[in-house]
Amino acid sequence: MEIKSLKNEQWSKIKLPSAHNSKIYWVSNKARIKSVDKSTKNEYLLKMKPDHHGHLRATIRLANGKNYGLWVHKHVAANFVKKPSRKHSLIIHKNYKRDDNKLSNIKWVTAEDHRSYITERLRATGHVFHSKGGSSKLKAKEVAVIKKQLASGKKTKTFLANKYGVSLTQLKRIERGENWAHVKPAK
Hints:
- By secondary structure, this protein is α+β, with helices and mostly antiparallel strands.
- The chain is built from 5 helices and 9 strands; from the N terminus they run βββββββαββαααα.
- Strands 1-2-3-4 form a 4-stranded antiparallel β-sheet. Strands 5-6-7 form a 3-stranded antiparallel β-sheet.
- Helix 4 crosses helix 5.
- The longest helix has 14 residues.
- 13% of the residues are buried.
C-alpha cells in the first residue's frame, strides 16, 4: 500500500541515530511522516500527538530497543529549510503555533534570536510576567479574599487551596505574611 502524495509534496529520508530493524522513515515538505516497511514496501502515515509543549511528534522504537521521538518540525527543518549559518541551530514557529509545521512557518534561528522569540511568543500568547520571574497563579484581589476567608475561619485551607489552585503551603505562607504581605484582607 502506497501513501498518496499531496500536491507538490516531496519526501526526504529521515536520518535516525541508529538503524531500525524493519522500517525506513520519511518526512515530507507538507509536514507528514511515513514509514516504509523494508520487506513488504507497505507505507503507513504516522499519527502525530502533541508533546507537553505542543510540538507534534511520533515515537518509534529503534533496533537498539530505545524509543526515539520524531518531532515533525525538527525533521521538516533539517530536510527542507536551509540553515543560514552554523550559528542557526534552533528552530522556531513564526506564528507561535507549535503544531503548525508547514515550511513557511518554520525558521532556523541563533540562540540570541531564540531568546527574543521566546519573550515575543509569551507576550503574543497572553503570558503575564511576574516581577520575580514566571507568572503568579493568584491576583491581588484573590489574595485579599483568601486573607479574609482565612481570618474568618469559615472555609478550610484545603477548600481554599482547591478553589484557587494553589498548595496548602502557599496558603500558610499567605496567612503568616511571608507571601503577599502587601495585600490587605478584603472588607
